[in-house]
Write a structure and sequence with these properties.
This protein has helices at about 10-15, 50-55, 60-65; strands at about 75-80, 90, 95-100. With about 120 residues, it is an alpha+beta fold. The chain has a three-stranded antiparallel β-sheet with strand order 1-3-2, with no helix packed on it. The protein starts with 9 loop residues before the first helix and ends in a 16-residue tail after the last strand.
Length: about 120
């Protein structure tokens, strides 16, 4: 009798000769009848107890923004861009950071602001 070595999820990717004769059955996935699709909402901080975790997780963004100063031709125009001002800016709390690049001066910016959900 021959025994086949099972590799879990890899069995689907690399079927062996002994497992090719077996047809796996998968469960049917359906949406419950009483399920309503939630309305998308912008990312918000709902509990103040989450603040330390959010600040710690945001450290990567701060490091990324800080290292961006070494990119050739990149400039921060202002930290307090006017909300009614034409153009693209990154809004983080009270700061509205508007930047520019002499290298990518002709690169198109998104026509509408990006909203994280």
């Amino acid at each position: 009798s021959s025994s086949a070595l099972s590799m879990g999820f890899l069995d689907d990717l690399f079927p062996s000769a002994s497992s090719s004769s077996k047809k796996k059955s998968y469960p049917t996935v359906t949406i419950p009848s009483d399920f309503t699709i939630p309305e998308p909402r912008p990312l918000t901080l709902t509990r103040t107890s989450d603040l330390p975790s959010v600040l710690k997780s945001s450290a990567a963004l701060a490091v990324r923004l800080a290292t961006s100063c070494f990119v050739l031709g990149w400039n921060i125009d202002t930290f307090f861009a006017d909300e009614n001002e034409e153009g693209y800016y990154l809004a983080i709390g009270p700061f509205r950071i508007k930047d520019s690049s002499s290298v990518l001066a002709d690169a198109p910016r998104p026509e509408i602001p990006l909203i994280l959900y």
